[in-house]
Every structure is written in structure tokens, then in C-alpha cells.
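note to self: dont lose this again. the chain is below, predicted strucutre after it. 71 aa total, dont forget to put it in the shared folder this time
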Amino acid sequence: EGKMRGGDTEFKRFLMIAIGSNDEVICHLRMLLIIAPRFSLEANNLLEEYKILSKRLNTLHKIWRSDKMII
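---
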């Protein structure tokens, strides 16, 4: 979405929004573990997936259009 609208600057802004949203989901899942332990299996599985996504988004944001970027 951001890449086509406003170039690299806009895309990096959208990546930051995605990182923030991802972190918010992780926070909610951690709260779910405390509030409703009966969902711990599902919450922990989702936490692992969102942690992976977080690492990928942060890496992409860090290297986007840098000298480390491989196209």
C-alpha cells in the first residue's frame, strides 16, 4: 500500500505502523495468558508467530533501501 503511494518514505512509515500493530497484538496475547489461562496453548502459539513476524518487519524496516538490501 505505502510503496505505491508515496515511495520509500511512505513505505517505511507503513512498516512502522505495522510494527506498532504487531507489538500491540503481542501485548494483548500476553494479557490473555494472564486473564484467561485456559487459552494458553493458542495464545502461546500465536505469540511465537507474531514474534517471528515482528523480527521480519523490524529487519525489513532496518534494511529497506540500505546498502544491505538485496533485490
